[in-house]
Amino acid sequence: MEYCDTAASIFDFNSKVNRHAPELPSTDGIEYPRAAAWASESLNNVLKDEKGRQLFRVFLHDSLAEENLSFIESYEKFKHMTSPADKKQYIQEFFEKYSPYVNLSSVALQKIKETAAEDDPNPTAFLPAVKEVNRLLENDQFPRFKRSDVYINFLEKVMPRSYADKWATSFEALVGRYYFRYFLRNIHAEENLRFWEAVIEYKQTKNKSTAMLNMGRNIQKQYLVEGTTNEVC
């Protein structure tokens, strides 16, 4: 079985994923606290929520990154396959549907190509690719989702009036903070809010962990060093 070169297949019309826009989840049966909690939960927990997963999918589609989530979902089915023929068919579909759009290292791709040549492909060969995509979703796309119009607009639909009243006293109210950000952006002061959000995230990180140390260094480098683009006043 032959597989197309990844770089070349990006420009192959026949390999493009069908990009029908996913539907927004219904607001029926969901209250504001449940939806607002997605902003502080892990990606894994949000994906366990049917409506949270669907809303994240809509965001990824708008960001031209839906294939990342689709790949993770498809792998969950692949790892339970027992038929060698089914496994080979999945790998063929991977190179046609996902490889041109999912940003993987050459090492991860090589693992997949090696198992594709085997009589009975081993699903564990996909683990490096799965880890890379999960890392991208967790560290890049999920944080942007929590600040996105898609998420904020959904929150507005399920938000009681009593929550909107909190805007006058606290910008910690999530939707209110969204509009406050627009105001700060117009007066060229958004870095102050980004600094505050980074500190909140830092405080929620496991104490004395490597992630906490790295985050602290990044906060200092981005916001507290004189002359940086995001220096806070």
UniProtKB/TrEMBL annotation:
**InterPro entries the record matches:** RGS, RGS_sf, RGS_subdomain_2
Q: Which domain of life is it from?
A: Eukaryota
Sorted alphabetically, which SUPFAM superfamilies does this protein's record hold? Regulator of G-protein signaling, RGS
Report the residue ranges that make up the RGS domain in this protein. Answer: 42-155, 175-233
Q: Which Pfam families match?
A: RGS
Q: Which PANTHER family match?
A: DOUBLE HIT, ISOFORM B (PTHR10845:SF192), REGULATOR OF G PROTEIN SIGNALING (PTHR10845)
Official protein name in the record: RGS domain-containing protein
Q: Which organism is it from?
A: Wuchereria bancrofti
